[in-house]
Design brief:
This protein is α+β, with helices and mostly antiparallel strands. 36% of the residues lie in helices and 24% in strands.
């Protein structure tokens, strides 16, 4: 199984957000940060864990705002207040749902979004190790034009 390319990640963000996006090498979102990152869990048709996506709080707010056509100040306020309005989280969830298609383009295994753990939520024990694994992952910084940037990691639980 492969991982999405940087170009496919960029295309997804640009297509959904309707704006130019710059991608650069990123780092793993800090799982100990407060508020924590947003973590999406993907499974196969037998409900077996296949991929984990971790998006830091800043990118969750930015993507949620940009997708909902909320001005950049909405994302900046959420980041400053360290509190994500439900509407921004719902928009970010939609992006993570569509990301399943991008993941599937690079995999022989059909995957779907199983669950999104919102910032600050305790992750299941079987998911935690995948958020910090060093291999089988893509880490990029996403900068949507006009909005704060942030990091996203896509981790394959399947052999790469």
């Amino acid at each position: 199984m492969g991982l999405p390319t940087n170009q496919s990640i960029k295309d997804l963000f640009e297509g959904l957000l309707g704006r130019e996006v710059t991608l650069s090498y990123g780092r793993r979102p800090d799982m100990e940060a407060r508020p924590g990152p947003c973590t999406a869990v993907y499974v196969d048709d037998r409900n077996q864990l296949t991929s984990v996506v971790v998006m830091d709080f800043g990118l969750t707010a930015s993507a949620g705002a940009a997708l909902g056509l909320v001005p950049p100040g909405g994302a900046e306020a959420a980041i400053e207040d360290r509190e994500l309005p439900e509407s921004l989280q719902e928009n970010a969830n939609e992006l993570l749902n569509v990301l399943a298609g991008t993941i599937n383009e690079h995999s022989d295994v059909h995957q779907r979004l199983y669950r999104v753990h919102v910032p600050g939520e305790t992750l299941p024990a079987d998911v935690v190790p995948w958020t910090i694994t060093l291999t089988g992952r893509v880490d990029v910084t996403v900068s949507p034009k006009g909005y704060p940037s942030g990091d996203i990691s896509i981790v394959s639980v399947l052999p790469v």
